[in-house]
Amino acid sequence: MTKCWSCSKTSRFDHGLKLSADINSIPRSDGDTIVITVSKVDDTALVSFYNAYPGLQALRKGYEVTFIVKNEQRSALIDTLLGEITLQFPLTPEEARRMNPDTLTVYKVDENGAVTKLEGAFDWATLTYTVVTDHLCRFYLAAGEASDQPWENHFADVTESDWFYGAVSFVCRYGFYKGTGPDTFAPHGLMSRAMFWTVLGRANGRRLSGDNAYDAARAWAMEAGLTDGTDPAGYITREQLVTMLWRYAGQPESSGDLSRFTDAESVSAYAVDAMTWAAENGILVGDNGALLPKSVATRAQAAAILQRFIDMILQ
Question: What are phi and psi of 278, to 5 degrees?
């Protein structure tokens, strides 16, 4: 299928690929029309390309992107831009479950057959892989298969009998969490605001590690509208954590309510929509019929909430 679109800033096509570009960077007159065409690469070309990458066939998706500027007198194909264009490649839940996100990449194949690897960022909230390029041609999405091996537990304070074992395995396998030491996870340790910004940043595909990880995570979270960035060392309550997660998810609407919980009235007004959404979708399950919105979240509780959120996305 081929889709053409006259575009001013951003277009989303039937098959899901999203593009955005600063069209003012392209020399043109006000009377020109910009047409972006996105075509799926045919099966013969897909087979030919992926045969060269036997270890990266958990995904087999290719797109050809063209950018045309035209008016009544002329039409010009633009393959190299003065600025960069952003491409967002969508994955289905099945594809996301099957692939290893650490191996996910996009290969750009130009008109001369030259192959360039584009590093990008995979966002678990939207199941999209984002790359930038200044050249439009063919793009192939590739990834290796997810590991079927059990998680190797290096933490002395986490055992298989713990209620949070599965959550800890999940957040560590996908790199959302780091341990607090070589052999400690500190599941009962309290979660700070900066810690949770960092966790969400990693889920968004940000590479956050080292001494400046918290500062970088804070800057990203503020820019994304998840937080005002205050009190990074302060401990995060359950309702604050859920509200940040809800904002990260795009502030989805919810048709439920919190009346079944014994302490529903204690939820802060700003957090009602977020807590309702989380409870309705099984992301927040409560404790003996209570939400405990003002209680500080532990690292294990935050891990479990994040795992349930991503499980919901992958359903």
Answer: -65, -40
User: Which parts of 137-214 are beta strand (E)?
Assistant: 138-142
The pair of structure tokens assigned to 49 is: 């390309």
φ/ψ of residue 271, rounded to 5: -100, 0
Strands 80-90 and 33-40: unpaired
| Structure token digits, residue 314 | 């992958």
Give whole-number Cα distances, 288 to 166, 261, 262, 268, 291, in Å. Answer: 21, 9, 9, 20, 9
Give pTM, 2 decimals: 0.87
Helix then strand count (H, E) for the chain reads 8, 12
DSSP string, 77-88: EE-EEEEEEEEE
Per residue in 119-165, pLDDT (tens digit) is 999 999 999 999 999 888 999 999 999 999 999 999 999 999 999 99
- Contacts for 259 with CB less than 8 Å, ≥ 6 apart: none
Angle between helices 193-203 and 238-248 (to 10 degrees): 30
Give, for 135, the enclosing helix (H) or strand (E).
strand 128-135
- Distances 272 to 33, 242, 243, 255 between C-alpha atoms, Å: 46, 10, 9, 12
Give residue-wise pLDDT tens across range 238-294. Answer: 999 999 999 999 999 998 899 999 999 999 999 999 999 999 999 999 999 999 999
